Amino acid sequence: MLGAIADDFTGATDLAIMLRRNGHRVAVAIEDHDPGERVRAGLDALVIALKSRTAPVAEAVAATRAAHERLLDWGARRVYVKYCSTFDSTDEGNIGPVLDAVADRAGAERVVVVPSLPANGRTVHEGLLHVNGQLLEHSPLRHHPLTPMTRSRVADLLRPQTRHEVAELHLDVVRSGRDALRAALDATAARYVVVDAVDDADLAVIGAAVAGDAVVSGGSGLALGLPDPHGDTDGWTAPASGRRAVLCGSASTATRRQVADAAGRAQPVLRVDPVAAVRTPDLEVDRIAAWAVQQPADSTPVIHTTADAADLVPEVDGLPAAPAVETVLAGVARRLVVSGVRHLLVAGGETSGAVVRALGVGVLRVGPEIAPGICWAAAAAATGGDGDDGGHEVALALKSGNFGPDDLFTSAWDRLA
Ligand SMILES: Nc1ncnc2c1ncn2[C@@H]1O[C@H](COP(=O)(O)OP(=O)(O)O)[C@@H](O)[C@H]1O
Ligand SMILES: O=C(O)[C@@H](O)C(=O)COP(=O)(O)O
């Protein structure tokens, strides 16, 4: 079995889709949840979803180490460390410290670093990460609320995060084919090697060249290069029908466009007040949940946080607003499920982590792909409390802030039909 550790929940489903597309029978385990021996026995790949991308370094490393041990116990022979295709991190981490911990434990002398995800416009060329043709540092990721990306050379982003050497291999080597790339990798003394990839064919070459590596790392794109022969990935059924809703904690430009598009199609839209989220979170949850149940049953209420950059509130009364906003959206998610919402689309990696935790979900069963990097997944929500017994089957789509077409909030439901 291939074991994978993803540093956020949208990233976990993104990777699971790629593995599924490539013939793996795959499931996503939420944090320290054990899917059970029977489920594990039927899998070719298991992705553990952590909420470690922006956690304090020691916490992220400890959670990753524990996840790695579980994967080893469960028979994983290879480990895939999944981070963001835009390399979301700071000079402190968490990509470097997490890679160091996994590579040390596995005794891996070399780990490739492959953030490219061409299907979503993320490419690495001559060591520089581009997002839809722009250098990372000139893309909207420069203004990310938690991990602003102000440099574009992947090696320069990783170096401050690790004590190990970081090298680069460029497209000319990749395009010389699997054997030439493997030879070049073997000739490199560095622990980490950033490998260029501009299209899916490059990812296939890299995947083939690292077929024997105990640890690989990247965005989800590298999974396209790791085929599994089983190819038997059916067995997904959509959970019972019910009301729909969208929860957006992402401030990304793609999400903002999707909110505006839904509003333009006459879907009801409400914005979380970050000041209220910090000062009176329970009242803010009540306000939003009460609004949502009043909307027409056949509508898709969209609850969001940021219409334009001016809405971003770093602090309120000296307290950070971002985690308070996440907590409010997580509280709203519970209330929505209790009130009959069964199909929930969540935008934002951190936000998805907070929502999935609040819903008490243990395993995501990966279903149909909606758009590159976005899928529906089935899960049992253990809402319990709030006047509810819990145990509802729900369909969740966890969307990276930057992914998806403008009409996603109205078109995503077609894939559940
Ligand atoms: N208006 C706002 N003020 C303060 N924090 C916000 C606001 N809107 C969103 N946030 C926070 O920004 C973060 C967005 O991260 P995330 O959910 O991972 O989205 P993305 O996938 O776009 O990175 C979350 O912690 C969220 O609570
Ligand atoms: O690799 C990617 O781009 C995604 O899988 C991902 O991790 C996105 O993170 P968020 O934008 O924070 O959801």
- Beta fraction of the residues? 15-25%
The CATH superfamily of the largest domain bears the name Putative sugar-binding, N-terminal domain
CATH architecture of the largest domain: 3-Layer(aba) Sandwich
Low-confidence stretches: none
Tell me the strand order in the biggest sheet.
9-10-5-11-4-1-3-2-18-19-20-17-12-14-13
SS elements, strand count? 20
Integer-rounded radius of gyration: 20 Å
What's the average pLDDT? 94
Largest sheet: 15 strands, mixed
Question: What does the model show?
Answer:
The longest helix is centred in the C-terminal third of the chain and has 18 residues, at 321-338. The chain folds into 2 domains: 2-225, 3-Layer(aba) Sandwich (Rossmann fold); 243-416, Four-carbon acid sugar kinase, nucleotide binding domain (Molybdenum Cofactor Biosythetic Enzyme, Chain A). The protein is α/β, with parallel strands linked by helices. It has helices at 9-21, 37-41, 57-73, 95-106, 154-158, 171-174, 178-186, 200-209, 253-264, 274-279, 281-294, 321-338, 349-358, 408-411; strands at 2-6, 26-30, 45-49, 78-82, 111-114, 122-125, 128-131, 134-135, 166-169, 192-195, 215-218, 243-248, 269-271, 302-304, 315-316, 319-320, 341-347, 363-371, 374-381, 392-399. The chain has a 15-stranded mixed β-sheet with strand order 9-10-5-11-4-1-3-2-18-19-20-17-12-14-13, with helices on both faces. Strands 6-7-8 form a 3-stranded antiparallel β-sheet, with no helix packed on it. Strands 15-16 form a two-stranded antiparallel sheet. Bound molecules: adenosine-5'-diphosphate and the ligand O=C(O)[C@@H](O)C(=O)COP(=O)(O)O. Residues 8, 10-11, 14, 84-86, 117, 219-220, 348-349, 373, 400-402 line the site of ligand LB5GJZVW. Adenosine-5'-diphosphate is lined by residues 144-146, 249-252, 274, 305-306, 311-313, 321-322, 325-326, 348-351, 400-401.
